[in-house]
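Thread: quick sanity check before group meeting

JM: Hey all, I'm pulling together slides for Thursday and realized we never actually wrote out the predicted structure for the chain we discussed last week. Dropping the sequence here so it's in one place. If anyone has concerns about the input, flag it before I start.
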Amino acid sequence: MYKPTILIDLDGVLNEYGKEKFNENYIPDMKKGAKEFLEKLSQKAELKLFTTRNLLLATKWLINNDIDKYFSDVTNIKSMAYLHIDDRAICFQGDYKQTLNNIENFKVYWKN
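JM (edit): ok, ran it. Output follows.
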């Protein structure tokens, strides 16, 4: 059965990023509800973790949180995917003027 690939960002999507000062050697705790979200989504899609963090550190974080089984890969390369789930993204809707406005007014949800 075909499953579309979805790239999921780590910081701000799966963890409590933004609540404390950034530390490249420490990944914050998993967000409440993330495990259940991944369990459901993995039944319908192939999941890949997309992160700019150290890949070994990110992989260990997945294992320590018992969610590594939901991911087929951990990558820092934007590979072909049906969707990207990220807390720092603008969805292009075909209107450049609106896109510029969205960029100028963008705020990540955890800074509101």
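AS: nice. The mean pLDDT is 95. Residues 5-111 form a domain with the Rossmann fold fold (CATH 3.40.50.1000).
JM: adding both to the slides.
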